[in-house]
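STRUCTURE:
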């Protein structure tokens, strides 16, 4: 474990989180960041998400960069992405971060009718429903 001095002078501990704790932390949904290669290099975008049966669900614009990458993949193929969620207390120098990696794909209209609803914060059309099933899950927490 690594240590650092926090705002109050006490040593902080960096702890590796197990899979169960990572899933517990991301389970409530909220805002996360999707990392993917948009053809010009790495890109990261924030999205509203929910967890549904162990998978991350989020929506994006039909004409958005991520959806364009998914549409150009071979039919039925998944595109590898990373998904990150964190909560940081800058004043206390504490927080956690969880990263999930796996294949993402667009949901069909039939699938959209049967999964949990994602309510994006921004206005405008977010007609592409994306599902990412994590194959790798890791996380860290820093605390005093």
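SEQUENCE:
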């Amino acid at each position: 474990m690594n240590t650092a001095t926090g705002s109050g002078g006490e040593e902080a501990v960096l702890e590796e989180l197990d899979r169960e704790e990572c899933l517990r932390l991301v389970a409530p949904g909220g805002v996360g960041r999707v990392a993917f290669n948009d053809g010009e290099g790495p890109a990261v975008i924030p999205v509203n998400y929910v967890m549904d049966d162990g998978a991350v669900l989020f929506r994006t614009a039909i004409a958005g960069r991520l959806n364009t990458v998914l549409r150009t993949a071979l039919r039925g193929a998944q595109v590898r992405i990373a998904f990150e969620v964190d909560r940081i207390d800058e004043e206390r120098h504490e927080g956690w971060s969880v990263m999930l990696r796996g294949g993402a794909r667009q949901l069909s209209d039939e699938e959209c009718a049967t999964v949990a609803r994602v309510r994006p914060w921004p206005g405008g059309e977010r007609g592409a429903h994306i599902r990412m099933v994590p194959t790798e899950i890791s996380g860290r927490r820093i605390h005093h």
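REMARK: The chain has a mean pLDDT of 85.
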